Structure formats: C-alpha cells, structure tokens
Amino acid sequence: MANITKKVSWSSRADESGAAGEETALLNGSELSRHLAKESQRGKPKEIPHNEKLLSLKYESLDYDNIENQLFLEEERRMSYMSFRCLEISRWVVCGLIGFLTGLIACFIDIVVEELAGIKYQVVKENIDKFTEVGGLSISLILWAVLNSVFVMLGSIIVAFFEPIAAGSGIPQIKCYLNGVKIPRVVRLKTLLVKVCGVICSVVGGLAVGKEGPMIHSGAVVAAGVSQGRSTSLKRDFKMFEYFRRDTEKRDFVSAGAAAGVSAAFGAPVGGVLFSLEEGASFWNQMLTWRIFFASMISTFTLNFFLSIYNNNPGDLSNPGLINFGRFESESVAYNLYEIPLFIAMGAIGGLLGALFNILNYWLTIFRIRYVHRPCLQVMEAMLVAAVTATVSFTMIYFSNDCQPLGSEHSEEYPLQLFCADGEYNSMATAFFNTPERSVRSLFHNQPRTYNPLTLGLFTLTYFFLACWTYGLAVSAGVFIPSLLIGAAWGRLCGILLASITSTGSIWADPGKYALIGAAAQLGGIVRMTLSLTVIMVEATGNVTYGLPIMLVLMTAKIVGDYFVEGLYDIHIKLQSVPFLHGEAPGTSHWLTAREVMSSPVTCLNRIEKVGTIVDTLSNTSTNHNGFPVVVQVTGGDEPAKLCGLILRSQLIVLLKHKVFVELARSRLTQRKLQLKDFRDAYPRFPPIQSIHVSQDERECMMDLTEFMNPTPYTVPQETSLPRVFKLFRALGLRHLVVVDDENRVVGLVTRKDLARYHLGKHGLEELQLAQT
Amino acid sequence: MANITKKVSWSSRADESGAAGEETALLNGSELSRHLAKESQRGKPKEIPHNEKLLSLKYESLDYDNIENQLFLEEERRMSYMSFRCLEISRWVVCGLIGFLTGLIACFIDIVVEELAGIKYQVVKENIDKFTEVGGLSISLILWAVLNSVFVMLGSIIVAFFEPIAAGSGIPQIKCYLNGVKIPRVVRLKTLLVKVCGVICSVVGGLAVGKEGPMIHSGAVVAAGVSQGRSTSLKRDFKMFEYFRRDTEKRDFVSAGAAAGVSAAFGAPVGGVLFSLEEGASFWNQMLTWRIFFASMISTFTLNFFLSIYNNNPGDLSNPGLINFGRFESESVAYNLYEIPLFIAMGAIGGLLGALFNILNYWLTIFRIRYVHRPCLQVMEAMLVAAVTATVSFTMIYFSNDCQPLGSEHSEEYPLQLFCADGEYNSMATAFFNTPERSVRSLFHNQPRTYNPLTLGLFTLTYFFLACWTYGLAVSAGVFIPSLLIGAAWGRLCGILLASITSTGSIWADPGKYALIGAAAQLGGIVRMTLSLTVIMVEATGNVTYGLPIMLVLMTAKIVGDYFVEGLYDIHIKLQSVPFLHGEAPGTSHWLTAREVMSSPVTCLNRIEKVGTIVDTLSNTSTNHNGFPVVVQVTGGDEPAKLCGLILRSQLIVLLKHKVFVELARSRLTQRKLQLKDFRDAYPRFPPIQSIHVSQDERECMMDLTEFMNPTPYTVPQETSLPRVFKLFRALGLRHLVVVDDENRVVGLVTRKDLARYHLGKHGLEELQLAQT
C-alpha cells in the first residue's frame, strides 16, 4: 500500500487554482481566511510536511452518476419491460458467479496453505526429531528460518516487482474504490493472481499475517472482472454484460464482490453485506443489497461445500469461512450483567493497544516511504522479517517450559514435543507453529489450564511487535487474524488472572470468553470498524448472545483509540493522500458555502465547439480537468454563458478518436453517428489525449456535443452551505457538481477534492493542501 | 388499518390541477396521452373503482430535507465543536432510552399475556375436568368462547372507538412513516397505550394473531416520544432534546425505534437494523445505522434481562425475543445439497399459499371498507371471530383422536387430556390451546412422531382461514406468528410425508427442519420481505447454516407470490391510497421528464409579500399546497420571476401566529425577531390557518420571508428524466423539488404525489389518479 506514493511533494492550494484562492479570501473575508492565517502563523515551518496533510490530484473519481445523455436515454427508451427484466436477471446471475468464484478462490487458498503448511511442519518436525538428540537444534532453526524466508521471498518478489498494489490486505484500496476513487490497477486480473499467490506464500512463510483481508480484495477483483464480460488483460471480449460497462454498475458489483470476500473469509454473509454498505454505500438500494446478500451467501456456501469435500465430509456444512471461531455454546460461556464493566475495560485496553499498534505502524510506514521504496529493498525487508519471526519464535519456544499433556479433547493437530516429557507437548511451540487461525481457535476453546499466564504474556508481547512490523511489508497479507490472535492472547490472560482472583468454578472460570472479548477489543482498536465488525464477530462465533458485549467492546475500543490516532486503514489511506469522502461534512462547516469551496474559474466548452479548442483544453497538463460544463452563449458578450450540460474528458476522447466532427468546410453537416457501444468498448481504459492524432484541418472542424453531454447536470446556487453540497454530492455519488448563479451561469465546479479538503482536526476545521504527487 | 379510509371517493387528476393536465397532454403529445386514452377506452366503466387505483391527497409528506434558512445556519454557526459532540452524545442517550423502553414494553406485554393466559387455561381446565364426567362439554365450550370474546371485545372497543390507527400490526403505517408520509396520529402516546392493551387482549382472547408485529409500531411510538423530550398529549415539556424537534431527526429516531421493536420481538438486533434500512433508509448514514444497532441491542438485552428475572433465572440470557424458535443444532438438522430443490419447491408452495391469503384478505378488506366501517360493527365482527375461533378449535379437538403420551422430553406446558386415555394428552388441543409462539416452537422441535399428518393438515386448513379472517379486524395484532404457524404446520406435514416415502433414520427423518422451511416460505409468501426477514429468521433460529436455504425459500416465495398479487402490507398501503415511493423509478419511465411529471402552475410568493396574499393563499382549500417557491421579480413584467427560495406552510403559519409583519403604515421596518425555538415549539402540530386571526389592518402589512425561507432549494431543469428526478427526490428525502427553466424561473413543482403516481402495472407504466379522499 505504502509503495504507491513514493515521492513526498506538494504544492499550495493557491498555486494550484490561482485566482480562485484570492477570490475566496475576498468574498469570504471572514473566519476562513483568519483561520487559515492563524494556522500558517502557528505552523511549524521547519517540519517536513508528511503527505497525509496533502490531497493528491493524481487520483480520479469514478462516475457513479449516470450520464443521462441523449444516447443513453434513447437506448433506455427503446428497451421494453422484458429487457429490463432480463437485465435484472443477468445482474443476479453475475452476483451468483461472483459469489461462486470468490468462494472457490477462498477454498483454493485454504487448501494450498493447509497442504504447504503440512509439508513444512513434516520437514521441520522430522528434522527436529533427528537432530534434537544429537544436540543440533540450531540446524532445525536455520532450516525453519530458511524455509520461511524462501516462501516469503517468493511472495514478496511477485508483489514488489510485478504488482505493488497487491501488497497488504487491499482493504484500504477497496474502501477507496467503493468511496468513489479510482485507484489505478486495483481491480485487474494480474492483481488478483499476485494477491492469491502472495497471500499463500506469506501465510506459509510463517509471517504474523492472515489470509482473510486479501479475500475482500480478491472478491472485488473477481466482481469487476466477471461483471464486464471481458478481460482487457487477456484481450478477450465475451460480448456479454455490455450494459454493465460503466462505473455505476461496476461499483455495485464490486460491492457484491467485497461482501462475498468477507463472507468467505469469516463465514459471515450478513457481516459482508454490512461491510460493503458501511464502506461503500451512499444511496441505499434494496434490490442491490439483496443481490449483495445473495453473492455473500453463495460465496460462503461454495467454500463450505468444497471444504467439506476436501475434509472427506461432504454435506457437512460446518466450515462457513476461512476462519472459524468454533462454536460458543451459550451454557458454557454465559456472561452476567456485572461482567459488562469488565468487558468495557477490556475494550479500553484494546483501544489503547490498538492506538499504539497504529502509531508504531504509522512511523514505520513513514520510514518505509522515505527509505525502503526500491523493490529489492522491500524484498529484503520481507525476508528479514520472516527470518526474525522464525528466530524469535524459536527463542521463545526454547526458553519456555510450558508443557501440556497430549491428547486432551481439543487436541492440537500439530503438537511439538521439543523439550517436554513424553506424552506432553510444548504449548508455546503450538501457539507459534500453528496457523494463526488455529491458534485463535485454541485460545478461545481450550480447557482452562491449557496455557500458563507467562506463555500468554510473552506471546502477546512478541506477536504484537511482529504483527506491527509485518503490516505494510511488500507482501499480500491481512491484519485481521494477527489482531485477533494478539487480543485473544491477552484476553485469555485477563481471564486467567480474573479466575485466580475469584474462587474457581464460578462463571469467571472460563478464560475462552475473555479471549473472545480481548480479540474483539484488539481488532476494534486497530481497524475501528463498528457495525460490520460486530456482525462479523457474532456470525463467526455463531452465538447471538454475545452481540451486546462485543458491540460495547468495539465501541469502547473505537472511542478510546480515536482519541489518539485514526484506524489503521484510514492512516494508510491518508498516507496515500487519497481524497476520501466521509459520510458527512465536518460538523462545524456550516459557515462555508459553495462559493468558498468550489474551484473557479471553470473551463467551459460551447455546445458546438471547435475541435482545436477541445484538443488544447484536454492537452493542458496544468489543469487536467475531467469534466467540463457545456454552455450556450446567449448574446456574444463577455458575460459567462448559460449552463446547458456537462461532458466528461473520457467522452471527448472517444469523440475525438472516432472523429465525430462537423466539417464546415465541405458543408457536410452530418456527424458520424456514434453508439453507446463505442463508449462502452473504450471503457474503462480510455486512451490519453496524446495518443490521438488530430490533423491541422480537423482542428478547424466543429464538434456538436449536444447528443453526448449530460443535459441535466446537478447544480447548486453559490450560497448553498457546505453540508448541503456535501450531502447532495455524497448521496448521489457525484463527480462534478456545477455551481451556478441565479441566472444559471456557471461560476464554479465542486469536485471530490474540493470537499475532501475540509476535515475536522484537533483544532477544529482544517484544510488540506492539494498536491500534484 | 382499513378503518382510516372509510369513504371511497375520488376526483380526476384534471380537476385537481386544472391547466396542468391539459398542458401535459399538449406538451407531451406522445406515448403517455395515447397510453392513457387507450387505458380509459379499455377500462370497465361499470366497475366501481377501488381506491388502490387512487392516490389520496390528504396525506402530507415529512420534511426530511433540512430547512437551511438563515435562522438555522446562524444557530449551526454559533455551535462549537463541543456542542456537536454533546448533540451526538444525546443522540446515543436517546437511542439507549428507546431501546430500554421498547424492551420494557415487550417484557410487559409478554408477562401480562403469560399470566392472563395461565389464568384462562386454569379456569377452562377446571371447568373441563368438572363437567367432562357429567357429559356437559358444551358448557366448557361456551365458557371458553365467552371468555375469549370478552377479551377480544375489550381489545376491539378501545381500538375501534378510541384509536382506530392502532388496529392491525402497525407495520404498514410505520413503513409509510419511514417512507416519508405523515400518517395522522400514528406516533402518539394514546396510540401506544391502545396498541399495548389491544394486543394483550387479542392474544389472550385466543385470536389467530401474534404480539410481534405491534412491537415494531410500539417501538416507533416510543422513539417519537422520547426523542422530542416532551409529550403533547400530556402537555409536559421537559425542555430537553429541543434540537431534535424536526422531521429529519425524528425520522432517524423512529427508525431506531422500529428496529428496537423488531429486535425485541424476534431477538434479532441485526434483523431489526436491516428492517429499518429496508423500509426507511434512502441515504445510508453510518453513525445513524450504528445508533440504530445500539438501540436494537439494548432492546433485546433489556427484554432478555427482565424475562430472566421473571423466569427466576436471573442472568440466563436465553430469551432474546418475544418469540424464540428454540435452538437448532447443526448436527441434528443438517441439510444436504440435494434437499435444496425441495426447499425451493416449498418456497413456491409458500408463495402460492401466501398469494391466496393476500387475495382473500384483500377481498375481505374491500368488503370491510364498504360495509363494516362503523365502530360497533367492527367490535361485533371481532367478537364473532373470537367466538368462531373458539368453536372451530373445539370442534377440531372434538373430532380429533390424536393422543400423545404425556411426559416426553419436550413436554407441553398446557397439556389437555380431554378425550384421551390417562397419561396422554390431545395434540390437537395443544396446538390450539397453546399460545401460537409455543405451538411454532413445538412444531419446530418436537420429536418426529409427536403430530400425526391428519392433525397437521386440518390444523393448517382451519388456521389459514382463521388467520386470514382475523387480519384487518379492529384489533391490535400481528400476522407474523400466524403465518409462521401455518407454514410450520404444512412444512412439518411435508417433512413427515418425505420421511414416510424414504427410509427412516436418514437425513430426511427430522420434520422440524421442514417445519422451519415451511414457516419461512409461508411468511415470505405473505409479507414478501426479503433481506431483513432472512436475517430475522436466521437470528431467531440461532443457526447461520440455515441462511442459504432460508434465503432461497424467501426469494422463491417472493417471486411466485409477486406473480399473483403484492405483499399483504403493500396491499393495505395501496388500499389506503398512500403516496408511497418505492426505491427506484419504474424501469420503463425514461421517456418521462420533469416537464410532464411536475405540477404546474405553481403558487409562488414574493420575497416581501403582502400578509393578505399569504393568508389567502394558505386558506385556499382547493389547492392546499404545503410548500411555496419564493421569487424575486427582476423587472415588473409578466414573465415568471426568478427563484430565490422555498418556504413551507408550517413556517408561514408560525410567522403569521407571531405577527412577524413589517408595518409599512407606521414606517417601522423592524420585524419581530423570531427564534428557531418558536418553530420548534410549534412542531409538529402546527395550527390550521383558520385558527389564526389576521385583522384587516394586518392584511395590508408586508412580510419579509428572507430570513425564514430555504434560500437554496434543490432544483432540476425541465428536461430531467423521471428516474433522475426520482433518484434525487428519494436519495435526499425531499418534499418539494422545484423545476426551473434555463433562466432559473419557476415552471413547476414536483412533490411526492407527482412521483408516486407512476407505477409499473401489468400492462406497463400506469398512472394513478389523485383524489381528495
């Protein structure tokens, strides 16, 4: 994730949009300018500004608003009721496919990881058995470390050299995509391939990572691919689903894909739907939500079904997700009213530890952005982490003497005897050797005396720092499972301590319950998700009774954590300077109006415009606008003309490419007829303007935009308050909002960056700078 | 529900908005008019038009769009960051209170019903024991029927005479409220009281009803009351939460209340949230959803906690809802892939039976609207139903010989021996005598051989018709539980038949599983809810594994049912002619534009307007508009003036009441300063214009609307397509949308009724008539 923004550069807002900046100061003459002046006096000019204080201009927005131009309306009007039904059915089919493929991918990852981990365990165990007797344990250590490093190296090489966007969990990128920001290459087939291989390598390489986060990204890529009915990477067009080749439809499917990913990862179909809604939805659409739910259901069912076959238990649908918390029976782990304050306290601890995790990771990421940005360095760092992880584990195991009898009812699959007596196994070794998923489950469910407190304490400490170091490496990996594992470890520790204070045999006695609460607290403290995480946790535990405690814990963790620092994903989004729009405008922004917020002056085009002017406008690299209001000049005066439409750069590019010119010279006034199909074929990789050759003769031609522009763009008057502008913009998923005066003349344009600039900081409303990074 | 619209009267659209109708025909000159002409030729003029073909003009809309006038903006700008934080905290407090009170009410209903039902059972059982030996079973029957009728009479009297809006489940009304329609008296304290008492009476009276649906209405009323910090009915103002006294905030709390109601009824907090979102949300707001979830959680927790005390089991939180499906263990009721087609077939049966139920109930409701509209008739009908229910049950019991041994593991709480041998009980009697909740549970969980097929078949048949007759009576009662019961009965029957076909001991052997599927199918076939119902069912069964089958079943039931008739709630909403807006514009409506849809001409007010004109405009009963565009005349010509704002009837009323006049005669140009508080105090029961006295002198004064009007109303150009208008209207929860020409002059106004008129019928797009009913 951190690999994208490698250079820290910025420019001031005033440089960027010249006159507008001054105009703002003049027109407003009030709090804003004074506020900004104060800010700049107070600012520490010596400090190098981190790029989270900037908004990058390199990110484009997605067009969630339908471009209702004449072509589109004509097509829609031609369509019968039956065609709409067919479309609806094909949406369902696509969602079913998305769910099925996502489930298959999850299944594939799971099986490959299981098999490879089994082989690794066998090799290391045989080695240990062979050499422990001759005292050469260090050989086993080296073998282990080398094996891990090789896996991690493979995973890291493909990520760092072939597809850096596949690094990390991909959740921040999907959040941005669903928010409406076009992150380059995020939903390509290549990204998916690298992601899947990468996550297998990093999990088998024994890093402190999970394979759940990447599933969300994988689901999203699957969705973006399937729904388009073609692959640009493979250069295959199946001539299907052509109607879905626009941002609005694609976004809907990507939501479904992300939900299917969550669903496959955690066996939580409802949690998946809520995740997609929490991150992506602005406008609630009942049919869409229902389809998303369908994709999620199919996804968890597919995974469940194929895993049941893999486990030689066909038909036993008890593996709904990659991670399975095991069944919490109400009787054994009931809670009481007076335990709720304890849970809340644990939530606060989770918030604190989460904030610490995030701050450490933030510093690390800054360091990485500055110094570790060459791919080979990144690969080396990843290998270093793998080796250190192996060494630390081995050291911990070496110095631990927590031996547990073998063969209890919840027996471990990979017990290691090591320095224990026969018939016993080393519980620290188990915690480190197991896949993290298994460790979480054993922390939740093992008998009260399975782990001793010292083991848990040391494990928490080391795993915390390892996980923190690992997140942000150039490998594909998630942070969900490590967080759960850290939390489960200290949660279980809390449980054991509480049980030792009070009498045994009481309701306090089961540390598994506290492990669950600790896991929720830690995860909540790191990622700060709320509603969806509660539902995911509840679904993963399969016990509704735990809803309230988990919710309270997550709320506490979020409140405590937010006091110090933002959530991990938000930190990484900010470090990339993505213009991310939150759900609502900052509370104290009512004194700002569209006049102050908008960019101005605006480059407008005439309804019948000279081709040369259009080419020049598009080629102007200093502005690089993506949307242009179309105007009609009523009288040939100086005054701004009346707004009559809006046209996008991508549309103009297609028009230029197809030479849709009115050749005045030959007095042929017919334009070449373009179809919507031409726009859809070019979607989503529109060529840059530089690749389109326009001859000098053609530059003199005229172009009639009437048919292609959106004739009814949304507009607001200049006096509209920022929250109102924000609401309109967000609710409709707009890309451009035209600001007009009371004569319907264009005075400005509000885009995502203009709104994302304002955010609530420690000292009230802050304004971010825009940068060309 | 049916009691509101008692008279069937209508007027044509052309009468209602004179010139506009003609203009539409002229301007459009296309498919619409031709289509309408065809329709009227084809129409059967002899048939009396049912009022579902009309939209009533008597319903007003709620103002979900903030009125951002100067007063509001000044207040917001004065507020510090801390005040916003405090507001946010008080929102959470209110949601917590809503959840707590809703949970308490659910608990109260449950306990009172249990106690009264226990007493009734004792009385009847003693009587039976006493008289069976002397052969006078008819005395017991009469006693039973009388007892039931008395309870139902009480319940019916309070509903029919005191608060007719409290009849039925209240779900259609809450759907309408959340959709943005102001249903009179729906969220008043009196309604709540009548609802609670009414539901107790009807459940204890042995009607085929449930107490779950009414909880949703109760929760909504609680929310509307608590959030306002005062009670208009009790004339108490606690001077709290004054900020929340507007439709936007109130709606948010009502969503939370409805969710809390669902949560308490079914122990389904997530289902509650999704219900609220499915029915109410247009704009997804993360914090709001989170608060709704909080209210739901608190509600189920409160219910659980107090019921555990009532059951002498404090701390055992195993009663999350009023209805508890019991625990479905994965092992005992696992399903296999090849059972899925069976489930889908059962879904289709559920859809068919649901459609039959709805059609019968529709005819019944029409009959009731025409002939049973006097309160005393309604009470008599309710008593008749109660007596018939009792008689039918007794007859069924009398002719049934399904005796089961007493004292199996799932023993019944109220076993009746009747004509069985000692040590046995009559299973038909159990099915009828139990509360429906208990019967559902025993159908789900009892041992395979507990019910014989004939009992189930007869029970299904009678209960189907009884439930159908009961819904729509003037009693407070829900249709959820009867539907579940019918479905569970025929589902179990299917299970038994399947088991008898195949070998015993196989996976088919457990009929409880099929009872669950049948219950879902039947409920889905009747109410046609999708996402929320799936989640409610999954949460109530406590088993995520059943998610996919339940979802498939509900989908099938909806598809099959929708082929014949709409869902029960939608039928009742239509019969009330409520202008209900669905999520999206009809698919084939792209050829309609704002020009055709809007009402015109529009009554506009000048920014500085004569008081007399305002009073006359407001008093004009023939138009009865609620929102007026405010314009400024640029030059004193005939041309329409430029739009500069929008003002509501309610605001004008407050202004008139406080005599905010500029008295030109005395050349005092200061208006009395009004505060937002004055508007909030008058909310929500603004006085009618008739009650405000304006003297002849005052009529000559002027009124300056600048400060009070919303200066930035949303506008669209005339060419905007209907789906685009619809999307804007729905996403922002608008009440008025001004249509302007390209000079920013008002040409029309789009309101809810203008959009709700268009709907997709069997023959494509249909247009409903507007009526003054």
TrEMBL record, chains A, B:
Where would you find the membrane-spanning parts of this chain? 92-113, 141-162, 192-210, 253-276, 288-310, 340-364, 376-399, 454-474, 480-502, 514-538, 544-565
Q: Which UniProt keywords apply?
A: CBS domain, Chloride, Ion transport, Membrane, Repeat, Transmembrane, Transmembrane helix, Transport
Show which residues constitute the signal peptide.
none
Q: Where is the composition biased (Polar residues)?
A: 1-12
UniProt cross-references to Pfam families, sorted A to Z: CBS (PF00571), Voltage_CLC (PF00654)
Topology relative to the lipid bilayer, per the entry, is:
Multi-pass membrane protein
Q: What is its main location?
A: membrane
The protein's superkingdom reads Eukaryota
Q: Which SUPFAM superfamilies match?
A: CBS-domain pair, Clc chloride channel
MF (Gene Ontology): chloride channel activity; chloride:proton antiporter activity
According to the record, the residues making up region (Disordered) are 1-22
What do the Gene Ontology cellular component annotations say? lysosomal membrane
Where in this chain does the record put each CBS domain?
709-767
Q: Where in the cell is it found?
A: Membrane
Record's PANTHER family?
Answer: CHLORIDE CHANNEL PROTEIN CLC FAMILY MEMBER (PTHR11689), H(+)_CL(-) EXCHANGE TRANSPORTER 7 (PTHR11689:SF136)
- Sequence similarity: Belongs to the chloride channel (TC 2.A.49) family.
Query: What's the protein name?
Result: Chloride channel protein
